[in-house]
Amino acid sequence: MKSKMETAPGSDEGAYRSALESSVTPVILIDEDFMIIFANRATMNMMREHREVFTKAYPGFDPDSLIGTCIDRFHRNPSHQRRMMRNPAIFPHRAEISVGDLHFELNVSRTTDASGRATGFALQWSDISPRVRYGDEVSRVMSALRAGDLTVRGDVEAMSSEYRPMLQSLNEVIEVMGAPILSTMGAIRRVARGQSAEPITARYEGTFAELCDRVNDLIASTDRITTIASQIADGDLTMKVQKRSEEDVLMGALGRMMVDLNTLLRQVQGSSHQLDQGSAQVQEASQSLANNASRSAASLEEISASMEEI
Predict the structure, then answer these.
(1) Does residue 132 contact residue 25 with C-beta atoms inside 8 Å?
(2) Model confidence over 45-91: pLDDT tens digits?
(3) How far apart, in whole angstroms, are the C-alpha atoms of residue 40 and residue 106?
(4) By the 8 A CB rule, do 82 and 88 touch?
(5) Average of per-residue pLDDT across 179-208
(6) Is 240 helix (H, G, I), strand (E, B) or coil?
(7) Which of 30, 36, 56, 144 could crosslink 152 through cysteines, CB 3.0-4.6 Å?
(8) Is the pLDDT of residue 10 over 50?
(9) Cβ contact 99:53 at 8 Å
(10) Which among 66, 85, 89 is positioned nearest to 77, based on CA atoms?
(11) Alpha-carbon gap, residue 99 to 105, rounded angstroms
(12) Does 106 score more than 90 pLDDT?
């Protein structure tokens, strides 16, 4: 009797079964009646390892009683699965399924005997849960980045050994990119609030170094403007204001303000001098008037005395 597994003409069924049994890939063989007739060691180990998850998804499930079980119990709509699997055009067929928090990639192919007659199906399981968890974690981190949040990092400890280095590398990239941006944000925030900001002293390379240099230039310029404004407030109009570039509107306006204030001060000083001169003239005229009044009074007294003698 020929095997119900996919074999090559003349091959030995026992040798083929032995090869499947020793495979590290979980494999299940299903006959034409959709009954499980074989499950290799890798399949049994996988289902025993995740017994709790499978039992929760399929109440009454027992991996040790898998052989002889109809696959209908694993599908919500068995008739749909049967119609699909009876269509030879879909094979080989690939699908991804979720069982609880586990994720599997299924590869289904037709099995034939030595004469080429269809005998059932071979189902290979691949546990892609680590890959899915990695993809979900990367998506979470990328969503945060798109939202402008540079503080989110991937949970490296939750990854399998296969994906842990890749997620760690992603975290390192974000760290390298985020550090200078966060540093400059802090400095710019203080400047925007009118607070004093310390120059960025951390050393970066390339574009990040240029970014920090430009922010340090901004801090220095803001400090210079603050010093000028403070001296103006204190009455010191002697400081020279130099534009940082030909397009420097702010320093240009400060420079014009200094010139205008100095011009106004000179005008006030000139007016004050003229006022002092006018005040002296008024004082001199007042003194002259007082002297004249005194002389007039003396003359009147002399006239009065003369009239009394007469």
Answers:
(1) no
(2) 999 999 999 999 999 999 999 999 999 999 989 999 999 999 999 99
(3) 15
(4) no
(5) 87
(6) coil
(7) 144
(8) no
(9) yes
(10) 85
(11) 11
(12) yes
